[in-house]
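Reviewer comment 2.1 asked that we show a complete input and output for one of the modelled complexes. We chose the iron/sulfur cluster case, as it is the one discussed in the main text.
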Amino acid sequence: MKRSKPFAITLDPGSSLANRTGSWRTVRPEYVDRLPPCNHACPAGENIQGWLFHAEAGHYEQAWRVLTRDNPLPATMGRVCYHPCESACNRGELDECVGINAIERFLGDEALRRRWQFEPPAHSTGKRVLVVGAGPSGLSAAYHLVRMGHAVTIREAGPVAGGMMRFGIPKYRLPRHVLDGEIRRIVDLGVTIELNSKVSNVLDAQRAGNFDAVFLAVGAHIAKRAYLPAGSASKMLDAVSVLRSMEGEEKPLLGRRVVVYGGGNTALDVARTAKRLGATESIIVYRRTREKMPAHESELEEALQEGVLVKWLSTIKQAGESSITVEKMALDAKGNPQPTGEFETLEADSVVLALGQDVDLSLLDGVPGLEIDNGVVRVDERMMTGHPGVFAGGDMVPGERTVTVGIGHGKLAARNIDSWLRGEQWTHPPVHELATFDKLNTWYYADAPKSRQPVLDTIRRQSTFDEVVGGFDEVTAQFEARRCLSCGNCFECDNCYGVCPDNAVIKLGPGQRYQFNYDYCKGCGLCVSECPCGAIRTVPEAI
Ligand SMILES: Cc1cc2nc3c(=O)[nH]c(=O)nc-3n(C[C@H](O)[C@H](O)[C@H](O)COP(=O)(O)OP(=O)(O)OC[C@H]3O[C@@H](n4cnc5c(N)ncnc54)[C@H](O)[C@@H]3O)c2cc1C
Ligand code: SF4
Ligand code: SF4
Ligand code: SF4
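Response of the prediction step:
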């Protein structure tokens, strides 16, 4: 494809004209950096265009180092992130979005394979921070805080770190050696993780440990219940307990006919797990339609391929000894499901409720200033709770509940904790203007179809916990990285240098980009219209 740097033959600046044509100018071109929409959409705030630039040149370690400035878990995120970056990617308007998530995974896997380590902090601040919970949000905050020179201890209630990445997301989507490898690297950087150490009162723990600040990331682990009249022998379980027990010695006994109640990703994970445990029937009962299902379409597709069935527009009315009664629903004029009085019986050895989770806030009892809203803790724009020095993030605060959002909260909280410890206020650096699709000259880029990740065959998916989606090899990862349009950021294609009729563009050398010689630039705007990625703009000349 056309991303290799074209040769441009040009004369020295100003050599084509004796006149200093700069005096004719009414507008002047300027080099700019714009914010690519992928970066804008990534909840972890990754500089995606920045690391793709290195990846496409085959400089994978450099790419990984740019990526991990924002996110310490790329091999994990490259598997479980729902990649909102790709939905926002400008290339989606040209043909198909860049496979950012799969390249991220490739870099994360390369780093594990080649044992790349994080750079240790250059200095120590002498400050101590307590992080409660070793899920993605706690791990992310701890990682960033240690890199800033603080001493961080994570207290984790469970026997292993990882939170819902380990005790929720099944192995066939996230193999545990990947998660273990990325957590180990964070520990090697200097984060202390104390396992089996539940914090029952946060202020007591802070005082006893002499911590200067606290970041809370306890997640949401209490399964929501639904009132279902149930016969004494019916087996009723909750999804999170079922998935958690998959990590232990004794696998859950669900039987051959399993009914899962709910429509989120957790419901799909349980139903797919039940299939792999040997269920002949794994049926999801969901009260709305497919369009309204909160689970991601790709995961639903994978579940259907594996033989999971879904009863749309249905609710469970009653659970009997070895069957359940389901009531059919119908949509009213406003599109809401309403009972119809029509019933159906389904055979079921077990019923698994996947209706969401609440946060266990008991460790916050008696903390002055704290505000709880709808079962989650309120935080300000700094991620600080109403109690000074106590910050919080991830599933326990308002917002979308995903691993990437948790990682983003951890990063934002770390920046603010760092400032707060110095008695300062962190302010976001100025945000560049968005590099929207209309800023690009798409004629410049060649067609290149999106690369596909390999998928395990269905038979093996139904009976094993082997990873379903495979990774890219190096050639594919590099090809895919080259599909990036470098929206809003110069990638040194030499176009402006080559097209300028006044030779007013000075080339500063590899990685140094270009500069205008305003003595000779007459403001014709040719460079602006010929820049493929929108990295030059014109501004009116001050008269
Ligand atoms: C089944 C399932 C599948 C999911 N799949 C995906 C997915 O594919 N992609 C995605 O982006 N998101 C997914 N999610 C959501 C995602 O897992 C969560 O949003 C994310 O893990 C939240 O991170 P967290 O750090 O806030 O909390 P958690 O990951 O829940 O971690 C909190 C940690 O705190 C510990 N803890 C709790 N209380 C205490 C205490 N008092 N003292 C000490 N430690 C404590 C817990 O043991 C736990 O380890 C899924 C969730 C579930 C349930
Ligand atoms: S973390 Fe998610 S949103 Fe961010 S770059 Fe990776 S796949 Fe995209
Ligand atoms: S083309 Fe590249 S820079 Fe532009 S939005 Fe997509 S990934 Fe980001
Ligand atoms: S034309 Fe090419 S070299 Fe010039 S600013 Fe745009 S991307 Fe950079």
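The first helix runs from residue 37 to 41. We note this here for comparison with the apo prediction described in Section 3.2.
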